[in-house]
Structure prediction request, 682 residues.
Amino acid sequence: MTQPWLQERRERAARLNTKLPVPTGGEDWRRTNFGRVDLGQFEPLPPVKNGADQGAASRLLPAKIVLAGELLYGEQASPPTLDPALLKQGVWLTSLTKACEEKKELVGKYLGRGLHGRQEKFLAQNEANWQTGVFLYIPKNTAVELPFLLTSALAREDSSCFPRLLVVLDQGAKATLLHYSASTNQNKNNFVNGVYEVYLEEGAELTWIDLQNWSRQTYEVAHKRVEVGRNARLKWVIHCQGGKLAKANIETVLNGEGAKGEVIGLVEGKDRQHLELCSLTHHVAPHTTADILIKSTADDRAKIIFQGMIKIEKAAQQTVSYMANHNLVLNDKAHADSIPRLEIEADDVKASHGATIGQVDREQMFYLRSKGLDKEKAEALLVEGFYEDVFGRVPLESVREWMRTHLEHPGG
Amino acid sequence: MGKELLKIENLHIRVEENEIIQGLDLTVREGEVHAVMGPNGSGKSTLAYTLMGRPGYEITKGSVCFDGQDIREMEPEERAQAGLFLSFQYPIAIPGVTVGHFLMTALAALSEKGNGRYKEIRKTFRKDIKKYMEGLKIDPAFAQRYLNDGFSGGEKKRMEILQLLTLQPKLAIMDETDSGLDIDALKVVSQGVSEYLVQNPKASALVITHYQRILNHLKPHFVHILSKGKIISSGGPELAIKLENEGYRAFGIEDREPGPQPEGGIHGTT
Ligand SMILES: Nc1ncnc2c1ncn2[C@@H]1O[C@H](COP(=O)(O)OP(=O)(O)O)[C@@H](O)[C@H]1O
Ligand SMILES: [Mg+2]
Prediction:
């Protein structure tokens, strides 16, 4: 039943996957080492059960939001829920497998487009193994006010899971996407390798709220790439709090003249979590702008790593690019690292980066405690204050409130 | 005579290897206002911080009892919960935390410890805060601003008084609340402290100051002169008058600053 073009691609990827070793060195991989993880202990998920009912995706989300459509994918899949008016306008929200059959042209045009030719183990592994996946397509000049929700949930133990997402906003389309990844039990031991591709055509506008809440036993590698076309706009909110050893590679590719990207991220490390966020801002076209702000806290024995690269091609003149990364280390045994880099080929550009790693301020602590807050409450309030400028830029009120209350009552 | 609220005996305090307070005795009873006056560097803030339990301020000798409890080993928050309050000489900015949220969190923390009084305070919190802000001439928009972040010196001092009025402690330690204020601001701030004292007839205040002028508004029952970590003279309000007229020299103290500060203030900002 599988399309021959797809079949062939997946077989090629499978061969590459077998050939390539798990990367352990180089600037990209030496700080988060999957070479020491026995990936063989994880069973690939069995064929997807279609058992989940409509609405399963939003029931797992810890916030109440009115939606334009939703879909659960991963271990279990739900039939998509989609506003019939949108269906009529040509909006697609389906599993990627179904889209490969019914929207062959469109999927063929975009799937893997920005990742071709990369000899990367985990990309190949995902390409060979993804199961249902999700496809979201918004046609030309269609503005969808309410957000779409895609939930990827994992309940089984000792499994490997390969989420795949393809989102295309055609010219002038507008949408908000809420993506939620979660383990349904905090103690599940799993491996997740997800590839998430987003394409914004000319003048399209996407707000992507990307919430990662895997269990603290989960190993994760993620590749997330957004291609921002001419005069298109991206606003990307990333909240990363799950995982035992997790590395997310995020790429903002400003591909068309006048493209704009804004990335706001929050990474919370606790216990013995090791979380790495690798951000690439790639300016390909002239007059593009990017603004990246990532804030992290490292508590207990957690280790947080940020690698940020701003890359400006020779053609990308009159580009403006900012990147800031601020870390708050809450425990003597916790660590944070920040490695910003610039690679600039063009001469008429503005690019800057800033990074800080600090601890809780003793004076602030004493001030708050002297007014009656115990150590824990004072620290929680300072952490909340630290993240406030990130929260302030989260567009959906209920998500913002959930992020705030989550900080106040962690683990909830 | 009221009950003893704060009793300090033969207190010695060490900060970074230096003995800053060297044998200090002080008793404050319920309903009393005490002024502690001293030149810069005499140890006023050291005393205030130590009473509040600031880390690094070590009591090497002597005793401190508050409301019948030995507080020497208590954490700062336990002292606040017991009813101590410090208005900071230099209030600390907490970016990202609004004034309103901070006050609510502080009230919640205090009431959690089972003190029924705070349950009552919380009931009318919003209304009261509005009223207090009005009295202190604080723009209502400040409730949504980040605590002390970018506030002027005068705004910070008013914020401390807003906290005092909201949290309703048993003993208010006011560390140089008057410094850096012009005449009008001083009046507003003093009225705030008076309001707190009127609302709580058993409450007391320890007004720490370099200058006499705040004492025109907050009539102290007792005045103590602090020099080099010791109280060298104690008496009634007349001590403050003498200090104003004759300066610290009259007490045999070298003061690096010019004599009594003229009304209106040389540091006048709001
Ligand atoms: N953290 C500190 N470390 C070392 N010395 C200090 C510290 N704080 C205060 N001192 C010293 O203690 C003395 C008293 O200071 P302080 O209590 O601030 O006086 P005041 O408030 O009366 O101006 C001064 O000599 C000052 O230099
Ligand atoms: Mg002082």
